Each structure stands twice: as structure tokens, then as C-alpha cells.
Amino acid sequence: MAETLTHIGQTEPRPTGWRGIAADWSSDQRAFKNVSWGKAMMWIFLLSDTFIFGCFLLSYMTARISTRVPWPNPSEVFALRIGGSDIPLILIAIMTFVLISSSGTMAMAVNFGYRRERRKTAILMLLTAALGATFVGMQAFEWTKLITEGVRPWGNPWGAAQFGSCFFMITGFHGTHVTIGVIFLIIVARKVWRGDFDTGQRGFFTSRTGRYENVEIMGLYWHFVDLVWVFIFAFFYLW
Amino acid sequence: MVDITPADGIPPAEVAEVELYHPHGWWTKYVFSQDAKVIAVQYSATATAIGLVALVLSWLMRLQLGFPGTFDFITPEAYYQFITMHGMIMVIYLLTALFLGGFGNYLIPLMVGARDMVFPYVNMLSYWIYLLAVLVLVSSFFAPGGPTGAGWTLYPPQAIMSGTPGGQDWGIILMLSSLILFIIGFTMGGLNYVVTVLQGRTRGMTMMRLPLTVWGIFTATVMALLAFPALFVASVMMLLDRVLGTSFFMPAISEMGEQLQHNGGSPILFQHLFWFFGHPEVYIVALPAFGIVSDLISTHARKNIFGYRMMVWAIVGIGALSFVVWAHHMYVSGMHPYFGFFFATTTLIIAIPTAIKVYNWVLTLWRGDIHLTIPMLFALAFIVTFVNGGLTGLFLGNVVVDVPLSDTMFVVAHFHMVMGVAPILVVFGAIYHWYPKVTGRMLDETLGRFHFWVTFLGAYLIFFPMHYLGLMGVPRRYAELTDMTIMTESAHHLNSFISIMAFIVGFAQMVFLFNLIWSIRHGREAGGNPWRATTLEWQTPQTPPAHGNFGKDLPIVYRWAYDYSVPGAKEDFIPQNMPGSFGPSREPA
Hints:
Chain A: Belongs to the cytochrome c oxidase subunit 3 family. The structure holds two protein chains of two kinds. By secondary structure, chain A is mainly alpha-helical. Chain A folds into two domains: 1-34, no CATH class; 36-238, Cytochrome c oxidase, subunit III, four-helix bundle (Four Helix Bundle (Hemerythrin (Met), subunit A), Up-down Bundle). Chain A is 68% helix and 3% strand. A two-stranded antiparallel sheet of chain A has the order 1-2. Chain A is globular. In chain B, strands 1-2 form a two-stranded antiparallel sheet.
């Protein structure tokens, strides 16, 4: 950590124990050493966003445990008839696989970004975006299927009306996050491809130059969206 | 670019400076500006404008309560719309926006020694989305059916039923949309304030050297980033209930003998979400006030703040505790007695850090060189008012005392004293204190003293009698009290008295507004540091500070913000950017 100077320019001895912890956290210029502004901002945003998804999931769980009518069985509702037999949760399993895979390609993109391998970084980011778009596409298929079967936000043929409300609200909100992620992945991939981060090209809106760290910040968001999906998968589909 | 090498025994800059965005012309300089100072003024002006609407609404309410039956245009429906919009505007669109968007934007970069917020573009978007939220809110006054009359808490099921004004019209939809927009806009600004404080400080500015103003705004912003999500989710879900006919909050219910389509929702769920936001919101408004008042008192009493570290920990502690007390707003909704016990206990524990702060303010004043300037008057008024409002909070925090007092005028008196009048007094004190920095001129002293005394004494004459009315059992949110046996003749007289006082205090605010505008041109020239204060915003090369705040080189901080009346120093204040040769420091080790 950086030393704090007293008013006469001497460095103070580093305090120990709790005072040391407080001194570290409140140390000169930056609380988090070697964390850029952008990365700090993304982490704090994700913390805030965690509270949003947390509130959505808690509200859903409240609705589910307090309802007096049966909750539709997710294994049956989300089953697909393939080859003459109902396979429970098959589409959701594929969607989950696709999204988790996209986290893998994103991590690889971050790695190649720091190695300045522009081509590989951009391709991997576009691959990530493609997997994300596939996920959203399958979600659209899922929504269509449920809607044709009569599921509405205000009711469904099998039980508690809150099933449809929570399903459309939570997956819709998550899907919006994925869609926004796909758009930004494409934008950042384009910047990487053109070499904006090497030539110091300024952003159209912000007039600021970017760095390859932007790929990592993009990755933070993407991994977060994946992580949220894991919770939705566990609490909504597997419960 | 500053040099990153250490020089003269000063800690090296940990990062190179980021190049500033420079405006190209009038539009990017004054309208779509990315400069935090301009954004601060935009936020403040918008908040003041919408606050005036809320002030007028309070007059209309007092017209009805003070002189029932006299004004035909104030129907019960209109009355409910007035109380709803008055509450919502004052709490969110005025106080939150003014403290965080206004004071936060202006003071954070200047006080931590930064050139601007870390992401000026996002900061600019924050204001424009806030403005959009305000416009959506205002548009509900002109929508069919008018604004919502659900009460500022928007409790379902009544909020979206046809018996409530705006419930089945546009009112509630516009209200919820406006809240969602506000939260999105606030998040953009809030992220900026937090990251600027954490990562954007100048050399030597440790967190434990931050002025308490910054600590207050910083902690409040962190809280807002964690509390607003609950309101966001509640707003989205209620919007779905209203527009799509879902049943998140709507139980099976019949209206005018007709069974509604809703089934199985939980109104209590909304209350939990709302108050998980709503209680921290009280401290989102109070903590910046705590911070600012600490600096006002220290500066105008020419004495270092008493117990700086304790003040910081008290702010952080209050912030953390305020997330585990929310259900004390819901005692009458019914809950397990153990939960009531838990929430009453946590609520009363908050009194400890709060009392520490009050003692420390008083001990800062103790044997200080107190200058009774207008900011100081407002700061003193704040302490008294906050203690008053806080003590009635002890009544309402206890389950058994709360139940009979709930939904009476006692509650109205309590929260107006503690989170209405008290923070507003700080807002005024802060404006008198920093106006010279923003405009380069002082506000008029005579008008200011008139404004202070009328506001301070008037506020007591308005809200003290309400405690008494509440103890009598006079309910709040009733448009018509005339025929209630509980309302004695003297109670009616008291109500008329309160109303007249409210008009007088309201008009005093017009004097204040006149002062604000008049002094821009005609005020006395202030100079760079009229209050002889230590913090960095008073050390800028130009007043008002130019784009980039600090000229060519950023200031370097050698001491804490409270070196007032240090023995052995030439002057009774030593600015934070003055090295040891200017005098010793009283900074706690």
C-alpha cells in the first residue's frame, strides 16, 4: 500500500490490527490499488444489479411458497417431446450449456485481449455474442411454446397464476441483460478488430480512448449474467 | 499529465491523469455539459422547480385541513393526489436529487481534489434521465384522471384500484414509470460518485482525510445503490399488476360488488420491498445532511470537528444498520412478535451512533469561536430539530407505542421534523455556505436572516402542534375531519393556525428564491474563500472554479480538513493543501 504522509512530509508507521485494515481501505488516492475506474464502476454496478435480481428471485419465492393453488411442475411444463418421449428440461439444459460455454469463450477473449491478439479476441467475442444470441433465440422459442400452450402473465392452465407472471418477468429481465450484453460485445469486438485500443481512437459518445481492459470489463458483465442464470435455473426450473 | 515520479517527499501519483473532455460550444458547455459543476446546477435547479410544485401542493392540503369545506375545488380525490405527490416529490425528486445529484456533483470532485467525476458522459446522462423522470411525473398532472392518489407509499391493492384517484387511469402508471426512470438515472450518477470517492482522489487525500460532507454523500450513495433496487423491482411488479393484470401484489378482491381478475398476490410483499428501500431512503437523505452540517459547524465555529473518526464510523454504522430496520414501518400490518421485537431492537440501536453524532456536534461547538453566520444558524437549527424528530422516533420505534400512534398526525409530525425540516435546514445552510463558490457572490445577509428565522420558528409552529393532534388521535390522510367527535373545537383552531403558519413559511421560501436570483448579479463579491475554510473547494485558483477545477496542477493534500485555530499558526485556519511549514496539524494519528 502507499504510505500516507503527515503534514510535515514524514511517512507514518503502518498501523496494525483493525487500524491497519482501516488504513489500507482508506489509503491514499485509491481504495482498491491497481483497479481502474472502469473496472471499479462495473463491480459496483454488478453489486447493485445483484440486489435487483435478488429482489426478483425473493419475490418469486415468496409468491411460490405462499400460493394456495398448486404450482405447475417445471419438469413437465419445460419438457420437449423428442422422438416420441417427453424429455424434461431438455431445452433449458441446452440453453444453460450454451450460456456457460459463452462464459468460456469470453474468458478466452479476455486472455487473448491482454496478449494483444486482436483477431482472436474479436472472433472469440463475436462467438460469445453468437452464443448469447442463440440463448436469447431459444428463450424466444420457449416463450412462444408456453404462450401457445396458454401460459399468460395473468394465468395458465395448470395452477398458480404467479407461475406465468414470475416466469415472464424474471426470464424477460434476464434476457434483456443478455441482449444488452450481446450488443455491447459486438461494439467492443468491432473496436478490437479495428485496433481502436492500439491507435487511441476516441469513443463516439465519450470522446475517451479505450484500453484492452475494456474486454475484461465486458467479461465481468457477461460472467455476471451467466451467474445470475445459474440461480434462475436452480430456483425456477429445478425447484 | 502529471509526473508519476515522487518529488519533494510527496507520495507519487498512482495513476496518470485522464484527459478531460472539453466542450466545443455553448450547447456542450451549458446544456449537454459533462462538467460535474454544471450538472450539479442543472440537478439543483430541476429539483428546486419540482420542489416548488410540492410546496404549492402542501398549501392546497393545508387549505383543506385548516378551512374545511371552504374550497370546493379540493375534493377528497384531489386531496389524496396532493398528499401523494407532495410526499413523493419531496422525498425522492427534491431531497434525494438535491443532496446526491446537486451537492454530490458539485462537492465530491472539488473536495477530493479531482478534475471531474470519473465518467463525465455517464454523469451527464444521469441528469437527463432524471429530467425525463421529472417530466413524466409532471405529465401525470395533465393526464386523464390526474396523478395517483395512493399515498406516497403506493400500497397495493388500493393503489391500482378504481376507488383511488389515478388507480385505473394514467396516474399510477406514470408514477411507477417515473420512479423506474429515476432509479436508472440515479444509478448512473451514483456509480460515478462512489468510484470518484474511492478511486479518484488527489495525492495525500486518504479516505480518513475526507471532509465529512464527502463521507455523508458517499455512504448515502452506496446505500442508494443497494436500496433503490428494491423499489425498482416493486415498481416493475406493480406496473405489471396494473398493465398486464398479473397478481404479484393483488389478492383475490372484489370492487363495487364485482370480483376482480386478480388472485393470490401478497400486498405485504410490496410493503417489504417498499420499506427495504424506504427506510434506507430516510438515511440517504439524512447522511449527506449529517456530513454537511459537520463541516458547517466546524468551519463557522473555527474549531476542528470533535471525534472525526468516530463521526466517520457513525455514518457508516448508521448506513449499515438502516438496512435491518425496515419492518418498523409495518408493525400495524401484523407480524410475528419476535420479528416486532427484532425490528424494534435494531431501530433503537440506531440511536447510539446517531447520539454519538449529536454529542460530537455539540462538543465541536463547545468553547468554539462561534460565528452566527447564516449557515451556522441553519446548522444549529438542524441539531435542535433533528434531536426533536429523533426523540419521537424512539416512540414510534417501539411496537406497543407505535400501534396506537400509527397513522395519526404524530407520525406526520415525526417524519417531517426528522427527515423533512431537518435536512431542508441543512440544504439551506449549505446553499448559503457554498453559493459564494458557485456564483462568486454572497447571498444577501438581511434577506437570509429573515428567511432563517421565519423558516426555523415557522417550522416549529407548524409541526409541534401536530404532535398534540396526533396524541389526541387525529388521523392522517383524512381529507375531511369536520364531523369527527375526536376533533374538538380547539383542535380545529389548531389546524387553522398550522395552515396559516404553513402559508407564512412558504412565502419565506419565495424570499429565499428571490435572494438566490437577485444575488447572482447584485450580491457582494465573495472572493475565493469568504468563510476562511480549509477544504479544497475553497482553494481553487478561480471562483467559480473553471473547467478542470484546479488549474494546471492538482492540489496535494498534507493534512485533514479540520485544522482550525491551530495554536502556533498564523491564521485560524490552515487549508488542506498547505504543507507543514504553514503550521502544525491537529490531525488524529
